[in-house]
Amino acid sequence: MVFGFGDKGVTIRDAHFPGRPGIDSYGNGGFRFADMSHRGSLLLLPSGVYGWEQTEEEPITRGSLARVFSEAGIEFLLLGTGRQLRLVDPDLRSALKAKGIATDPMGTGAAVRTYNIMLAEQRPVAAALIAV
Predict the structure, then answer these.
(1) Which domain of life is it from (predicted)?
(2) Where are the domains of the chain?
(3) Which run of H or of E encompasses 41?
């Protein structure tokens, strides 16, 4: 998507950070990591950190986790479901399991803390975190 006048437009790209940082803090609708802040939800994958268009009100679906399904090297997915725990749809859990990914839903705060620990242990973890 390009915005601007004439040939001097600004290109807007999807949010992406190519590293595997821990999350320094969360709340107020976003996250802080790697001396940066991001407003909105996040996917933390082996290939990097991505902005995620997911809110607490929307169901988490295979489509909303498409980037997770296309990623290699994930054995465990932490689902930060917002302020409160939301269960994972059984069909989604089965689809993740078929790809070799175990999943554990929990509130976003617990998911952030667990992700940081598993990342420090160099485990094959990813996280899908809904902003709170």
Answers:
(1) Bacteria
(2) 15-129
(3) strand 41-45
Band (pLDDT 50/70/90 cuts) for residue 4 is very low
Judge: domain 15-129, CATH 1.20.120.80.
no
**Residue carrying structure tokens 């094959």:** 124
Q: Which residue has the tokens 């990591």?
A: 33
Inter-residue contact 21 to 28 (CB < 8 Å): no
Cα separation, 87 vs 105, in Å, equals 6
How far from the centroid of its chain's Cα atoms is residue 109's Cα? 13
pTM of the model: 0.87
What is the reported pLDDT for 15?
66
**Does the pLDDT at position 1 exceed 60?**
no
Identify the burial level of 51 via C-beta atoms within 10 angstroms of its C-beta, where 0-12 means exposed, 13-18 middle and 19 or more buried: middle
**Beta-carbon contacts of residue 94 (< 8 Å; ≥ 6 apart):** none
